[in-house]
Batch of 2 targets.
Target 1
Amino acid sequence: MKRWEADGNNDATYDANALSADTIVVGKDVLLRNGFCARGVVRLVGAKVGGDLDFSKAQSNAMSLHLGDSNVGRLIDDTASWQDLRALYLDGFVYTAIFGEPDESNRTEVKARLLWIKKQQPKPFRPQPYQQLAKVFRESGREADAKRVLVAKEWARCNMVACPAWDAPGACFCI
């Protein structure tokens, strides 16, 4: 398949297990944008997309998005397209670049992307989404942002570690 498009302009609204495209192979772009709305689960688990995954201006308030183990070129989205997702699964999701809202400062974008990662279920701890985001920032020359992401990854990991019962209150720390 060369290109796959389902945007709001085409009245693409799906129900229940809304869209299941596990292991799909698309040579160019997957466009789920411009008012795309799904009431249920959108699955692209293990998908291989040769071009962009465009999720910009999607309506996500009744949607769960599963991108685990998928591989795309660029991820194109905006904060509004994912902030209301019911669930988000990113473990194993690989992308080469991110294009978000053009008016965002780098610091704002880092904070927004960390909130994006935190949309996942918290347990078990999944380091790959943090490492992938840091890699993309580093490869685009944003070393300081990559470091912020990796520090956030360690804080998230530490929050998952239970302190031994014999530790005094406040004595547990993460190195």
Note: The mean pLDDT is 85.
Target 2
Amino acid sequence: MSLLLYFVAVLECDGCLENERIGLLQIKSYILSLGRDERNELELGSWIENRSSDCCAWNRVKCSNISSQQHVTHLFLAGLNSRGSHLINGSLFSSFQELLSLDLSSNEYQGWIGKGQLVSPSYFTISSNSFFYFKFFIQEKVEF
């Protein structure tokens, strides 16, 4: 029984890396800074600053489950900006070294600013935006 409790305790400590958790909180802060929206606050309500919160269990986030140190691999940020056109800062995504897919569709973003470099997701969705400039390498698929 004590061995079972040990494994449960270890599993409760697992989650994404601290720098990725902080990166997600920065994204949340940016989205909410565009203007308070009840839907966004509900959608991102699980993204809390508590260090014991497993960000791999947060809404709109998926992580690898290969090891105890899980990396954020998928971010679904579609439709979180309903308050007009804005630029998105590329540095918001620099924490996610294992990111496989990023969905920024339906956000009315106008462009990509900053020197933040996105680490080549294989699936990147930017439909229903107005990107006029962004520069980074995409390995396989970009959906407009």
Note: The CA atoms of residues 75 and 102 lie 5 Å apart.
